[in-house]
Amino acid sequence: MQAIMKPQVIIIGRPNVGKSTLFNRLVGKKLALVDDQPGVTRDRRMGDAELAGMSFTVVDTAGWEDEDPDTLPGRMRMQTEVSLEGADAAMFVIDARAGITPLDEEIARWLREQEVPVVLVANKAEGKAGEAGLYESYSLGLGEPIGVSAEHGEGIADLFGALWPIIGAKSEAAEAAAEFAASEDDDETLGPLKLAIVGRPNAGKSTLINQLLGEDRLLTGPEAGITRDSIAIDWNWTDPKTGENREIRLIDTAGMRKKARVVEKLEKLSVADARRAVDFAEVVVLLLDATQGLEHQDLKIADLVLQEGRALMVAINKWDIAEDASALFNGIRAALDDGLAQVRGLPLIAVSAKTGKGLDQMLGAAFELRESWSKRVPTAALNRWFDDALEANPPPAPKGKRIKLRYITQAGTRPPRFVVFGTRLDMLPKSYERYLVNGIRSKLGFEAVPVRVVLKSPKNPFETKD
User: Fold this and answer.
1) Fold topology of 379-456
2) For the ranges 25-34, 38-47, 305-314, which has the lowest average pLDDT?
3) Fewer beta carbons under 10 A from the terminal one: N or C of the chain?
């Protein structure tokens, strides 16, 4: 059975009518940032939605503004217009309490000229305050409005009734195809590579993703901090070495500045959203700006990624305009090895989001990094290494008391976690723990990924202390 995509429903409307609140209601979690000020959403954000068993992809878009295309609001509007291409339905959201505005009328005229079916959604329609706007919305010429309260979950069943005739059949077909594919595929695979791009503001994260996709999918510009939400995009990459088609989920994040500089409430929400994106990623690319080099904030971001147990790599962007490139690369390499001693030798790649240089190399390294991050070492091979490590450098005997390390096992992957069993482990110096971690990384193929080692002593109530 051929794969069938879920139907796609686009949410459109002027700023601050509750589009992102409706998006969060439909996907069942707070994926999109929500705030009282208009213009919070700037890039398209996709999520898996379900209404009474009907599954579809819902797309949150930037607020429609009547601005020059060269301005940031104008570019946001162009993104919204492009999002309608290939959609199965559009939900045009108005604010029932505010009533119909000239901008609502302009959007309605544009939607009537499109071929995509439109469901008119009157949000904030709860109570008497929304009644007038609900009735007034008939004048937009888009049929009967669906009165909802996205914040309180009212009217969602009516929304299902309006969408079902448009996308119900395609939703059922996609679900049947997915169930068939799942029954046919018994192989355990890692699935799409979840790749997050992080870094300081204006490092070129969104430009890099646009270059990978070959389209202006994300808003970019000279203004720092354009990206606010963490945006996930599913994409297929063709490996130039093997010709293999590989699935990737790209995650663009908001720029992460020093905490002292993050004073605006909205930016605090954006940075927190970026931190959550790191949690969901498998491999994280820390993007540096070649014109600014490696700064202390970059090391703090890298340390955050490693603390979360994600696989980390570093890409130096804007390489096409870098000065004294060789000295810059070697300087960053040395600073990383010094500042991130726990993962010496992590991948460092020079790229240009503008020209595409080094991007295939970056993606190839990301897949290799995930393999190391997901690797499991057979117990026999692990303990052979362990015995050799103990023989080469036996544990110390503080105060004449011998520390016994008996065996090691791998407790988990992603990140790799190991448990060492023995006695008197509370007396084992931290330097010896580092010796074991470094040995695991260098000898067992975990060179550039964070490794966790836990020491565990047997709990024997009859054991006497020496």
Assistant:
1) GMP Synthetase; Chain A, domain 3 (3.30.300)
2) 38-47
3) C
Architecture of the structural domain at 8-184: 3-Layer(aba) Sandwich (3.40)
What is the DSSP-derived secondary structure letter of residue 452?
E
Per the CB < 8 A criterion, the answer to whether 122 and 137 are in contact is yes
**Per-residue DSSP letter, 138:** G
Same fold yes or no, 8-184 and 193-373: yes
pLDDT score for 174: 77
- Binding-site residue positions: 13-20, 60-64, 123-126, 199-206, 252-256, 317-320
Structure tokens at 131: 């009644």
DSSP state of 88: S
CATH superfamily membership of 193-373: P-loop containing nucleotide triphosphate hydrolases (3.40.50.300)
What Rg value do the Cα atoms of the chain yield, rounded?
27
- Strands 45-51, 54-60: pairing is antiparallel
What does DSSP say about strands 89-95 and 45-51: parallel, antiparallel, or unpaired?
A: unpaired
Closest CA to 95 of 85, 86, 105, 104: 104
Residue spans of the domains in the chain: they are 8-184, 193-373, 379-456
Q: In the 8-state DSSP scheme, what is residue 124? A: S
Annotated binding site for GTP: 13-20, 60-64, 123-126, 199-206, 252-256, 317-320
Q: What is the DSSP letter of 212?
A: H
Write out the H or E segment, with its range, that includes residue 365.
Answer: helix 359-373
Which letter does DSSP use for residue 241 in this model?
Answer: T
pLDDT in tens, 155-194: 888 898 899 899 988 887 877 666 555 444 433 467 899 9
Most confident stretch, 43-57, 247-261, 421-435: 421-435
Q: What are phi and psi of 147, to 5 degrees?
A: -80, 125
Return the structure tokens found at 133: 């706007």
Cα separation, 50 vs 25, in Å, equals: 10
